Amino acid sequence: MNKILVANRGEIALRVMRSCREMGISTVAVFSEADRNAPFVRYADEAVCIGPAPSSQSYLNQKKIIEVALSLGVDGIHPGYGFLSENSSFANAVAESGITFIGPTASAMEIMGDKLSAKAAAKKYKIPMVPGSDGEITDINVGKKVALETGFPLLIKASAGGGGKGMRLVERIEDFEEQMKMAVGEATSSFDNGAVFIEKYVAGPRHIEIQVLADNFGAVVFLFERECSIQRRHQKVIEEAPSSILTAELREQMGKCAMDVARACSYTGVGTVEFLLDEDNKFYFLEMNTRLQVEHTVTEMITGIDLVKEQIKVARGEKLSFTQADLKINGHALEVRVYAEDPTNNFLPDIGKLITYRRPQGPGVRVDDGFEEGMEIPIYYDSMLAKLITWGKDRDEAISRMVRAIDEYQITGVETTLRFCRFVIEHEAFKSGNFDTHFIAKYFKPEMLVLHNEQEAEVATIIGAAWLNAQKNKINRRADSGENLSNWKANRSWSE
């Protein structure tokens, strides 16, 4: 494999290209008109504009992407995450064109891309499941019967859903009919698939995911877990590896189940199996993501394994070069997602120009981003600016480095989630490890950040005034002693 086209944009495109360069593989960037001056476009060996800014006319244009790949003699296409990464028709089209799709097979995507078929496949391996319906619910009366058998509270979930879309929490039978209609409607509009199912609502859950890797020769390993319980709108904001709550025994049990889920769909490449962990440390299969995850970075930091390189090696037919026994957890890693959002205004996306953009540096700090100072934030795509990752010999060091890195990260021109992330990782619930997916609802109110900013500003004003007064007194003492002080020296003293 000598040339790879990256069918994505921003930080993940850059991240894939860097691994390709280390492997001696040339890269092709495809970009929209909005991304013409983006760093990933300049970094690639070749770059082709494939359409206007809207993703439907560019990054989701399967035909155009494959045409570019064929015209440039590309050997493989890496889809990154999002866009076409879990699109089975794209994976099929790439394979039919004679180009290698760097990811799982289309059939594996189809099985795991639908939550009902994923559950059916996992059941064959006796993977623990959240109690609920066995299949799709289309009839309101049947749904009510299942709801009463399952018990309240419960969730109505879209079979093809993700990111909280097509999901409704129902706490009593009187609300069931209305909530089911809303779930079906949202699922239809979001995924063109109105299929829904019912699950028992797990109170106070942790969101734990297991990284798996499989080759084309039957070898499967798991690269430990990631804790992803800090979420807003059912989407992750902060992730860490390993989880602070898993014992070695529980980790082994969940890892075995994750590998069995991969075997259930003959999975190849990198994938993630997600679980809910309840208050009694019982875990339940949630879904499988058939792609590289946003938060793959923390797994790389604690294992020392480049997951993108492993994807490419598997895609070109290589066997895994290590076994489960070779894998060890080294230290602790945290990732915060830096979104252009206003956490004091319900995390609404913010757009504008990056007037100041300076990355943190130093030991144990990694920044995966796709922006530079002076760039405009496009309104057409996800609002994530960067992923800030820290590593430490233990969880405390990773946290302290994250606080330091957040303080060093300078971004002006748009609101970001950095202040919110700092609030979370300094909160006692997070530090103690005693938190779940309801962290924001339990502990966060927007005014907390406003108050914190005002307090910081007040302290800074007091410190500044005290320092200035000390400098004045210093100069006055020199003047009283008869020391000849030039204007330059006086002014310099004030500014030092």
Q: What topology, given as strand order, has the largest sheet?
A: 13-12-9-10-11-14-19-18
Percent range of helical residues: 25-40%
Low-confidence segments, given as residue ranges, are 485-496
CATH class of the largest domain: Alpha Beta
| Overall geometry | globular
Any guess at the CATH architecture of the largest domain? 2-Layer Sandwich
By DSSP, the count of extended strands is 20
Amount of beta strand:
15-25%
Number of domains: 4
Name the structural class: alpha+beta
Radius of gyration, Cα only, in angstroms? 25 Å
SSE map:
Layout: E1 3-6, H1 10-22, E2 26-32, H2 39-43, E3 46-51, H3 62-71, E4 76-78, H4 88-96, E5 100-101, H5 106-113, H6 115-123, H7 140-150, E6 154-158, E7 167-170, H8 176-191, E8 196-200, E9 206-214, E10 220-232, E11 235-241, H9 248-264, E12 269-277, E13 283-289, H10 296-303, H11 307-315, E14 332-339, E15 341-342, E16 348-349, E17 356-358, E18 365-369, E19 384-392, H12 395-408, E20 410-412, H13 418-425, H14 428-432, H15 439-443, H16 446-480, H17 487-495
Parallel strand pairs: 1-2, 1-4, 2-3, 4-5
Antiparallel strand pairs: 6-7, 6-8, 9-10, 9-12, 10-11, 11-14, 12-13, 14-19, 15-16, 17-20, 18-19
What do these coordinates show?
With 496 residues, the chain is α+β, with helices and mostly antiparallel strands. The protein folds into four domains: 3-102, 3-Layer(aba) Sandwich (Rossmann fold); 131-200, Dna Ligase, domain 1; 206-448, ATP-grasp fold, B domain (D-amino Acid Aminotransferase, Chain A, domain 1), CATH 3.30.470; 453-495. 39% of the residues lie in helices and 23% in strands. It is built from 17 helices and 20 strands. The chain has helices at 10-22, 39-43, 62-71, 88-96, 106-113, 115-123, 140-150, 176-191, 248-264, 296-303, 307-315, 395-408, 418-425, 428-432, 439-443, 446-480, 487-495, and strands at 3-6, 26-32, 46-51, 76-78, 100-101, 154-158, 167-170, 196-200, 206-214, 220-232, 235-241, 269-277, 283-289, 332-339, 341-342, 348-349, 356-358, 365-369, 384-392, 410-412. The chain has an eight-stranded antiparallel sheet, sandwiched between helices. A five-stranded parallel sheet has the order 3-2-1-4-5.
